[in-house]
Amino acid sequence: MVVSARAAEARASIDRVTSYFASMQDVANDPDALDFTFGNPKEMALTGLVDAMRAQVEPRSVSWYAYKSNERAACEAVAAGLRAELGLDFEPDDIAMTQGAFGALSLAFAMLADAGDEAVIPMPGWFCYAPMLHAANLVPVEAPLDPVDFDLDVEAIARAITTRTRIVVVNSPANPTGRVYSRETWDALAGVLEEASRANGRRIWLVSDEPYRRIRFDGIGFDSPVGSYPWTVIDYSYGKVLLAPGQRLGYLALSPLLPSEERAELRASCMPLQLAIGWGFPDALMQYSVPALESVSIDLAELTRKRDRLYGALTDAGYTLTRPEGTFYLWGAAPGGDAVAYCAGLADRNVHVMPGTLFGQPAHFRISLTATADMIERALPHLVAAANG
């Protein structure tokens, strides 16, 4: 074998996604396609995003486009935003600016775990957790969500923990289900992790994947597990709330509740590791834009209208759906129980939704709400017609 074992494992665990992505390229370039697959924009970029970047393009010094690490103004803006949102005393030194949530997760895995350690991941969950863990020479261990309401199953996580467990990954609001988990759930999970850490004689870390934190419906509040379990790090991406996943901007935030010595050690480790994993910092222009981008968001009222239109019409047609509390996805059971066949039938009508096989759920599908309202109206007759399998 030419490639490393971990490269082969990473490829095998993501192959169904990369194959699907390749198969969708013609669809992505077809102006008549009704594409509800990936969370890509279907309309022009937000004015606030363009204005924020445009305001920083003109260099103000000879070092304007020099190498950048964790720029102080960006870290200060992020820390202030986290203090306002989560009510905890985050400081700029707790923030590492990264190339989106991908970069933040890569940094967390490199910083917290050693080769061969296990990381518990939720299922159904984001399809890049496992390949990223394999690439980091770590071992993904799946823990199923509740099969009925897709709530976080704390007991399933407890069963998945072994003496080799170093990390547990959680995701709220959750992709693909749209669930937002409660403070009571986090408190219960904190108890499990504290007990398991004591039994193992080694701390288990919680990685809270929060790229959809600011995309919630119906006035639903948000609790981060960082308030329940001090040994938590938060990864975040601006690509979701800005609907601009191609502009790579995110961060890793360390819990301000960590014991002071551990907090200081992690702070001192971030920048060297960001260098070591391949200059894991956002580009200069994106970092300069952070203070302005903290207040820019997609239109949540319009997104709510899209959710309500699709959810209402499809449930009326007989679909079984999970009503999303956050994210910009709609998750449901495929009519007939075969997601691949269901999605293929819709594709024949040039309507494209994502099969749950990409999430390890062959009987489910996901619809992206980033489609336009016009696309939704044009697709609905086809979706309703497919309701009976």
From TrEMBL:
Gene3D superfamilies: Type I PLP-dependent aspartate aminotransferase-like (Major domain). PROSITE patterns: AA_TRANSFER_CLASS_1 (PS00105). InterPro entries: Aminotransferase_I/II_large, NHTrfase_class1_PyrdxlP-BS, PyrdxlP-dep_Trfase, PyrdxlP-dep_Trfase_major. GO terms for molecular function: pyridoxal phosphate binding; transaminase activity. PANTHER family: ASPARTATE AMINOTRANSFERASE YHDR-RELATED. It comes from Agromyces flavus. Belongs to the class-I pyridoxal-phosphate-dependent aminotransferase family. Its EC number is 2.6.1.-. Residues 34-382 form the Aminotransferase class I/classII large domain. Pfam families: Aminotran_1_2. Its cofactor is pyridoxal 5'-phosphate. This is Aminotransferase. Keywords: Aminotransferase, Transferase.
